[in-house]
Structure formats: C-alpha cells, structure tokens
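User: Show me an example of a complex going from sequences to structure tokens.

Assistant: Sure. Here are the input components:
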Amino acid sequence: MPEYAIETAALRREFGRNVAVAGLSLAVPRGEVFGFLGPNGAGKTTSLKLLLGLVAPTSGGGTVLGAPLGNTEVRAHIGFLPEHFRFHDCLNARELLYFHGRLLGLPTRGLDTRIEALLLRVGLDDAGHRPLRTYSKGMTQRAGLAQALLGSPELVFLDEPTSGLDPLGRLLVRDVIDELRAGGASVFLNSHLLGEVEATCDRVAFVKSGVVVHELSLAKAQGTLDVELRVGSADDALLEGLAAFGTGVTRDDTLVRMHANAESVLPDLARWLVGRGVALYELRCRRKTLEEWFVEVMGEDQRPG
Amino acid sequence: MRGVLLIARLTWLETRRRKIALAALICGLLFLTVFASAIYFGFRHVAEQGGVANMVEMRVASTILTVAGLYVVNFLVTAVAILLPIDSLSGEIGSGVIQTLASKPVDRAAIVVGKWLAYLAMTAAYLALLGGGVVLSMRLFADYQAPAVLMPMALMLLSAAVMLSITIAGGVRLSTITNGIVAFGFYGVAFIAGWMEQILGMFGNATARYVGTIVSLLSPSDAMWRRAAYEMQPLATAALQNGPFGVVSVPSAAMIVWAMAFVVLVLAFAAWQFRRRPL
C-alpha cells in the first residue's frame, strides 16, 4: 500500500492564457485529514478536479491512492462531494444512491441496506422517497454527502461541504470527518470556513495562484502559544534567561512577548521568574488562530475565501 | 458495459420522469388518429362513390399517402432524435451533475454511449409506433399493403441515428441552444441539398447531383429518407418521379454503409472529445 493518499509534483493547468494551477506539489499521507485553504480564485477547485481526473493537467503529474491521475478504476475507492451537489431532480434520494452505488460497482445485494444506513446517517431517512426537486439546499447537500460515503471510500474529497448547511448539518459533516479518520480514510477538505478546518484537519496547506505557499501541521501549530508577560523591569539578562523557555522573545518596555512550545512550560516559567525575584504583574497566553495564520501567510489583502 | 447499461437506464428513467416520453406518446397518438381518420373517411367516400374502376389510380394514391404519412413520421422522428439528447450532456455539464457521474469508476465513453443507446431505443420505439401506425392504417382502411416496410423503417431509423449522433457530439462542447441550431442546420442543409439533387437532377444537372452527394456524405440523414422513400414505391416509381416524393437520384447501397459508418465515427468522436473535456 502506498504511503501517500495523494502525491503530486508541479501539477499545472492552463485554460487558454489563464493559469488556473501554476505548480501544485502536495503529499498527503494516508489517514490524514488535510485542509486546502486559499483565497477566492486561488485554484482550489481546479486543483481538486485535477486530483479527481475531471480536468487533465497541462503538465506535471501525480498519484491518487497509488494510481496515476485520471485512472478510472481507483475511483471506486474515492468519494467526492462537489461544492454545489446536483443530480437529476426527478429522482429521489434512494434512486440517486442506487445509481451511484451501481456506478461504483457495488453489488445489488446489500446495497439497499447500505443506502438505508446512509440515509439515516445524514438524516434523510424520512425524505428518501421524495424527489430531489422538493429538497432544500441543505437536504441536497446531505444527499450528496451520503453519495460520497457510499463506496466506503479510502479517500474523500469534500469541496466546501458545509455550504448551505445549518449548524446541525455542519456538526454532521464534522462528525463524518471524524468517523472517516477513525476508519483510517484520508480526507481532502476544501473550505473557507477556517473554524471548521481548525476543528477537523490534521494539517493544512495554504494555496495561492495554484501553488502551495505554506503548510502547517495543526497539531503542532496548536502547541505553539503566544505568551505575554508584564514585569517590573525587563533587562537583557531576563530576556536571555527566557529564551530557554521558548522562541521569539521581544521586549516593549515592561511588556515581554515570546512563543512557548508547549503549555507545560508555563508553570516552570512562572517559577523561574519568581525565583529570580522578578515582579510579575501579568502572564497571559494565547493560541494563534488559523485565521491569523491565514492572514500572516496570505498577506493582509487576501482574506479567506 | 455495466456503465453503458446503467447510464442508459438512468437516461430512460429521467426521460420518463420528466414526462418527455408521455408527451411524445400523446402527440404520436394524436398524429395517428388524424391520419387514420383521414384515410378511413377518404377511402370510404371513394367506395361510396361506387368504387373506382381505375385500380392503378387507387394504388398510386395509396402509395402517395403512405409515403406522405411516413414523410411526416420521418420529420417527427428526426425532431425527437435531435430534441431528446439536446440538453443531455450540455445540461449536465452546466448544472454540475456530470461531476459526480464522471468521478465514478466508469469510462467517460460509457456515459456518451449509454445516453446514445437509450435515446436510440426511444427513437426506435417512437418510429415503430408512428410508422407502424401509418402502415397499419393503410392496411386496414385503404386495403393497401406497402411493398416494403422493414427496410424503409430501418433506413428511417438510420436517418434518425445520424441526427442523434450529431446532437450528442455537439452537446460535448456546445451550449444547448447552439447545439440545437447546429443539429437542425445539419438537417436543413442535407434536406435542401437532397431537394436540389432531385429537382435539378430531373433536368439532368450533373453538378446538382454532385453537390447533393457531397452534402449527403457530410450529413447522410436525408439520403437515408430518400432511399427509404424509394424502397416504398418500386411499383409506381415511374409514375411518381415528378411528384414531391419522387426519387430521381437514388442513394446507393454504399451511401447506406457510409451512413452507418458516419454514426459510429461521430459517436467515437463524441466519446473522444468528452474524454478530453475539462468538467
């Protein structure tokens, strides 16, 4: 089994003179929930379509679940929820899932049971017989989510999965992602809702003009704390001593700022300060939010989108 | 093959649910009712007049009516062959429905062929209903048995299959309306070239025949209708040559083979283009 669910090198796609994806190089390990972030028009959806084989690359290449991009067979193990999920609205959710199940190559036997279980999972068990045209936007999205999970996929692409969903629907998506992770599946999440990404993803990539400009492991990033100390007086010796507890120590009169690598250093830090006889008026710590990271990486002009 | 059959089934289900099949059935039955009534009352009137001694005239009239009826059937079936698939691919590409289909483990060619197969079956059923109704009406109410039925019907289906394939291929890249204009354009050009070939051919104009043949190669639908019309009236061809359904220049067997090859080639082109198209 290949180590990576997704691996690409310098993937590029041009539409005429317009370069949608300039050179995407990604490596998403199996079992990881990976967030793909970037401003509007950063080439996120085109990147996802390249990985799904819906769009062929102009140059570059890669593999998905070990198979080259565009491979047909491997799609049996991939789930996909497009940003605006649509299907023939004269069909009902059961029929929709039946056809998708058959297209995935699932045997007819046991398919009905699987469909009922999924309808129940996404909260559409009462509406499974109704034509899709009578569905609200959120219900259609739930049907799309069920469709993405139908084949017990090893890799799931979710493009803005919570668009049109109410808070309960968002919770559902979050739970589903957790279940996928627990089951060992990989998830590729395209979302501009940073709070959601923060809550679900193991790692994120920031993409700008179809190039990954920064990658961040959220588990590690969440360990990093911004620490602020207000002391009686901050001399050079104090700053040097503080460097043992973290990085980026700066001083602004009596206010000292630094990054601590873990929360566990804070009691030691306080003990050390008191032991040195430093007058400690305030000790505050704060985690950097993903939004702050986003703004830092993308620049102030690029708001999430 | 699984993909082809599944897509065909999905296409049929969609056509049925959108009440397209029902509308076609109702309109088809309406046409047949009018046609059968006209034949019934017309021929009863002739019989009440004390019968016509001239059997040849009766046969000629019956042949003309059969061909005229099937001419309308051919037009309706062609229209159905163009309109059924007109928004099938372009519509699904536009709405995004195609994204979930094309990301399944099914070759994109299967999507094209599956749709084509479903629409061809529906067109064939429509043709069988209308064409069969015309032939049966003539048999019941005019006591006229067309000299050939299966071969002309097969040629009319081939004519419709040509237009169906062109429309499916157009839907890969063109918007729905543009596709419709192009498909009817193909039909119209072949139609007018066919008439030109007939009318100018009567005056022995070799250039007209030449142009007609070239156009038939590019769009062989009308040529198949002309061959079908020829097949239906072998006895009376001499008498009808100058009529509206006369066939001066009969499309050859080679043209029939070409029409079949044309369908396969256009469908293969559609599948090839669809495989390359960004979705």
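The lines above are the inputs; the final block is the predicted structure for all two components together. The longest helix of chain A spans residues 167-182.
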